[in-house]
Amino acid sequence: MAIKLPLRFRILYLMSTKKDSVNSEDIMKELENDYGKERQFKKKAMDNHLLSMRALGLIEISEVSIDKNDELIENYKISESGIGRLKYLPKAYK
Amino acid sequence: MNTTERLEKQEIGHAKRGLLFGVVSGASWGLSGVIMSIAFGMAPFTDGVSLLLAPIVGAAMHDGFAGLWVFFYNLFNGKWREYGRTIRTKPGMLVCLAACFGGPIGMSGYMLGITLAGPSYALAITAIYPAIGAVLSVIILKEKIGIRTWIGILLSITGVMIVSWVPPAAGMYPYFYAGIGLACLAAIGWGTEGVISGFGMDMVDPEVAVGIREAASFSVYLVAVLPIMFGVVGYQMIAAAFTTTSVWIIIVAALLGGGSYICWYKAINMTGASRAMALNITYALWSVFFGWLLIGTVITPNLIIGGLVITCGAILVGANPKELINLRSK
After folding, report:
1. DSSP state, A22?
2. Under an 8 A CB cutoff, do A53 and B202 touch?
């Protein structure tokens, strides 16, 4: 893939390639290679992106659980309206 | 507390932080405006070559410096690489388009409206921008707006009109109707900016969007608005400003203005364009408060009544956070 996408585009694209839902840990692992060296690549920032994208209806929650540290873990998948936005991705990502 | 309740609490928390960003955007915009008015009282902006020159040059410099501040901020939080990536995408270009509506159309219209029709009319008319924005956001963004939110938006607008209403002095403004028209144009510009950038920001990080917005707005001022309206005189005034202390005042105002824009765009992204706009116009109230604090603006009964109405409106806009969980209809 030639050019790097803006992070939010990349998150949406990643979800469009996954059959199962993903949580923010999964996304961080998947994107570590491409974005890991950038200071914007933090768990808290990732959670915020996901919260906004969900409120705006691009992604939806498919499953929620609580882990052993009593942290809330949300699993997301791409929504209908999110799939509609994939048309804004550059050609290399279609 | 079970899992569903915790999830709901987290989502409401996110939306509430968005509402807070909306209020902070209004307060910092009000303060930024008061500081800009101090700069406009200094050389070279007082050497009136043309009535229209100083406000437009000031607005251009404000957006230029705000763009620099926001870039430093994004350098610090590691988002500067996103500029180039974003600008190549369609939502990134939409943010540039939004910038043209907000800066060269919105801000210039507002500044010219103040000059030609007086601040009270200009402020009262531009304050309807959240209503224009709310109508557009229902159509374009499919945003859900309940009755209570509509009443809140209308109350805030009414409050701003009460605050800024001063019976005009007859004969002071020979180009009065042109000024009114330009203030209407500004309201349309700002309402459109919020909705277009809101659409783009579904996919673009709000902090990156503001950086691109300020840079795009400044570029349009520099290569189109200034030369078309004033020829070389506009550039001469910018150069002259750099030799006086007024440039430092604009740099401070731009720090607040850039911060205000970050808060506004974050609010649009977190709590919806219509609510963010309704909270943003509280700047009319804040500018009176900071004006009283810094440059001795007199507080009148109008200001107190209008202020209370704006506050009631703002409270109604954010009254039921549960409505904020899903911002758009399916």
Report:
1. B
2. yes
Helix (H, G, I), strand (E, B) or coil at B97: helix
The one-letter amino acid code at B264 reads W
Residues of B in contact with A12 (CB under 8 A): 203
Of B15, B79, B270, the CB nearest to A40: B79
C-alpha distances in Å from residue A22, one per residue of A94, B13, B147 = 21, 22, 36
**Helix/strand/coil for A60:** strand
The DSSP element (H or E) to which B151 belongs, if any, is helix B147-164
Q: Are B317 and B146 in contact (CB under 8 A)?
A: no
Backbone angles phi, psi at A37, to 5 degrees: -85, -10
CA-wise closest residue to B235 among B246, B223, B247: B223
Instruction: Check residue B203 and give left, alpha or beta (phi > 0: left; psi -120 to 50: alpha).
Output: alpha
Indicate the domain borders of chain A: 7-86
Question: What predicted TM-score, i.e. pTM, was given to this entire model?
Answer: 0.92
CATH number for the domain running over A7-86: 1.10.10.10
For residues B116 and B51, give the distance between their C-alpha atoms in angstroms, rounded to a whole number.
Answer: 9
- B3, B262 in Cβ contact below 8 A? no
pLDDT, tens only, A41-60: 999 999 999 999 999 999 99
pLDDT tens digits for range B70-110 = 999 999 999 999 999 999 999 999 999 999 999 999 999 98
Q: In this structure, what are the phi and psi dihedrals at residue B52, rounded to the nearest 5 degrees? A: -90, -20
Q: What is the C-alpha to C-alpha distance for residues B208 and B216, in angstroms, rounded to an integer?
A: 12
Query: CA B292 to CA B163: how far, in whole Å?
Result: 13
Whether B232 has its CB under 8 Å from any CB of chain A: the answer is: no
Sorted by where each begins, the domain ranges of chain B are 12-46+54-324
Cβ neighbour number for residue A86 with a 10 Å cutoff: 16
A22 strand-pairing partners: A76
In chain B, % helix, strand, coil (3-state, to 5) comes to: 80, 0, 20
CB within 8 Å: B3 and A65: yes
